[in-house]
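Our platform keeps sequence and structure together, in a single record for each protein. This encoding replaces a full spatial description with a residue-level series of whole-number codes. We quote a single record here, exactly as it is kept in our systems:
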Amino acid sequence: MTGKIQRIHAKAPDNWVNDPNGLIYYKGYYHLFYQYFPYAPRWGTMHWGHAVSRDLVNWEHRGIALFPTKRGDENGCFSGSAVEKDGRLCLIYTGVRYEPADPEDIHVSFNEQFESCQMMISSEDGFHFDNWRDKEMVLPPLTDPQIGDRTHTRDPKVWREGDSWYMILGSTREMKQGRVLIFKSRDLRQWTYVSQTEKGPEYGWMWECPDYVKTPGGSVLLVSAMGLPDVQEKEKNHVLCFPAKFEAGTGRLEIADRCQLMDWGMDLYAPQTTLDREGRRILMAWVRMPKPSGDGWIGMFSSPRVVEIEGNHVYLRMHPAVRAAYSRKINETSQAPDGYRAVFDLKEGQQVDVGGFRIGRRNRRIYTDRSAVYPRFAGAHLISETPELAEEAHLEVLADENLIEVFINDGEHVISNAVYGLGNWLRLDPGMEIELYGLE
């Protein structure tokens, strides 16, 4: 798979991918690591795959970066993040050891019996990692349930503030409600517990893949909440955004009593953010797919989005590099076999049909209907809808073979839907105008 180039949306090079990991701009490259099972298009013993880009548009797969070699990660190198320290790229991730593995399938645990620790490995160039000699356990499995769960504490996101490093981890309280844990370090190797934050069982039994995000307009805590009780669809795990404030002096993280969904399409999960070359906070997330594509791979990533906060509302705007890549004016979708960008306004009652994927406006909300281009199964989420909008409804749509991203009012809301068998045509209601752009 090494050297495989993909544009805009990084997809599984083969077999299975899920969470983006270690997203960072380092020494002239954007590095996107990701959860990867290289043996089949299904979930299993996690490795870290690796893709790089110079421009957030063209992604080149560079093979496997991390794989199990130590007792701490003998059953998987799970999610984590990246930082630069002393001229080296440091990956901090969750290692898992099963107790025991399922005797019928060694790639999964038996009855959820496993322990989790936090590990680190580093590289000078960001491409070569010595999995045999350079790994170290920096936070052993937790033993005090009042601090965190021994099994379900994972996905470290690390950042620097002042003269200290901070690590936020996802965890659970008695498998009844999610929480996040904060640890502090001076050297990335010795970590001290500082604080924890939670909201209650109505926000899910587990918070994973946490990310504390700072922007000029404010800060937000992103959590991938598992088992949301009020969700009726098959997939009950979704990303919540809480307005937040972190105080480095006390190590306390305060979050608001309200939150918003990161994406209204219900397919994006496990987001991770970093700063791009220009200092903008950008986000990428895993696109969950219910079955492999026609080529036998499963799992891909959203286009990079710029995170901005206005009035405690999180905007996820199309990245300027993505918009610039889709700048070739076209007249028909058939002129853009690799995907296109469509720009239009929607009035109340109007609808656009994008190759079988319908986008419309009703009751002052934008909705999408993928019934014709998505597998039907019990609990399948076919129709997505935003909250009520103001008068304007300006849309930019990225149409890919397996993903539609609908940006509404410059990222005020986004609907991202996985699709299958999308037609290469577009139909508008009478009187509508649209601009179409293919990739340069």
Remarks:
- The chain has a mean pLDDT of 96.
- The longest helix spans residues 320-325.
- The chain has two domains: 5-321, 325-438.
